[in-house]
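Model the whole thing, not chain by chain.
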Amino acid sequence: MPGIMAEVIWTDVGPRDGLQNLADAAPTEVKVRLVRGLLATGVPRVEATSFVSPKWVPQLADAAEVLNALDRADLSRLRVLIPNRRGLELAMEHGVGNVLVTIAATDSFNRRNVNRSVAESLDGVSEIVELAAASSVTVDVAVSVAFGCPFEGRVDRQRVVELCGELIARGVDEVGVADTIGVADPAQVRDLCERAAAVVAGPRLALHVHDTRGMAVANVVAAYQAGVRRFEGSVGGLGGCPFAPRSTGNVCSEDALQALMRMGASTGVDLEAYCTVAERLGRDLGLELPGKLYRAGVWKPDAIGARTPA
Amino acid sequence: MPGIMAEVIWTDVGPRDGLQNLADAAPTEVKVRLVRGLLATGVPRVEATSFVSPKWVPQLADAAEVLNALDRADLSRLRVLIPNRRGLELAMEHGVGNVLVTIAATDSFNRRNVNRSVAESLDGVSEIVELAAASSVTVDVAVSVAFGCPFEGRVDRQRVVELCGELIARGVDEVGVADTIGVADPAQVRDLCERAAAVVAGPRLALHVHDTRGMAVANVVAAYQAGVRRFEGSVGGLGGCPFAPRSTGNVCSEDALQALMRMGASTGVDLEAYCTVAERLGRDLGLELPGKLYRAGVWKPDAIGARTPA
């Protein structure tokens, strides 16, 4: 991504993966304010919406309106999810230069999701990459259920690594391993990321985790220790999980960014601004978002020391 | 702790640190059911209550009733918090064989908590250890605000390590480093635990963390990697933080235990039974506890694979 100097490239997927997992569609103006607020935190990239049919994802039916409301200058830091060639065309019409496609690590999940085998979806990726390349649009792919599948259970890690390599061979710009249903643990994340990094050159490997079972921040830390530098999460931990109805969603961006920054990572992000966005979003949606940092506040030990007499 | 074979000694402090941070006192019968339920999960130790004056902690004013309602056989797995010699006498009257005393890493926090300097509190610890030893009662000490102090900001790690060594020299059985206000990060936890382990023989060092800023499970993982084998947390993440009013409390026991077990640790705990206790406790208290695992359920990939046709 040109212009991004931070060591860690964080993508906030709250406006897409977060909002699409809420029962009701958020008002367009809330979405636009959210994307603008996130861009203002300094986060390198925001997944703003998706061009999936409103029949499947009514929560994001206003994708065009959201993109039209944003500044042209902001487009270089936006990504949108697309399901197919038609989605890519819509994204390009709106001047988006980076798209995300998902493919599952298992045939069972892929068939239930898009009614195609993984091999068929791989051919779809090739078609999208070819069309995108002609317009200098970069294509990222997320490998869903890379750590566990609700229909098949365990997922063979070698199968995931091979799929990552196949995607790179087909011209994909970034490959993400996604813990779609929130079952991964730190040891598993470290192991898979180290293996995937062997076929996806370090900076182009991303991790996408959900906090379904409370291990998401630990998983981000484990991946960072394994050399991963691209991550995805949602502001305030916005979202949910269709496979675990009472559960929370993506890893909370600002909670995890805080952990990475404490470990010395440069992220380009203003954590206090991030907390303000989470606070406002919760108010706008009438929800108590599950993130922790925005409630407690960023820890500033030096400010305390300075104002407290010895 | 005799009879405990697990590699990791987890102490559930929900009935004490969790309940004392709620606005209202829970009914005694809820507390008794909670302690019994926790013991039935196989968790090695439960911090059942405290003999602190009801004037300061009205939430635990029924300490004697709770202990009297429990089976004598369970006493060997219980610990109670005591503030002083009088508390120790009460604990011994009830047949408790393990007590916890807290001391702060900073004079500011210690003075606000117990109106004494750290040096004065150390002398109090010596007095308690001496009296306890005569009755074969073991004394554990938690070093509060070991990772950051709300009144002093940063806490010098060397000062914490020296305090840990001083406590061991005074005959304390177990020393815990406590992130009382939830500001620690994984790198800091790993660093302090490695240094503390040099003065507190490995198995006698404990970590007590709060999830105030969302890093608690990651901190437990980091401490485990640094060799720590004793931990404290609360079922369902029950509790709060007096220094951050909207925040959650101790690290959620079952979420963190799950992470340790995934890393190969033996804990002696039945995670599904733990989730059942969290679920029931939330119902009893009329609260949505912040823990994640009890909502999503324990991940059992092999069970899925077995029942799904290929």
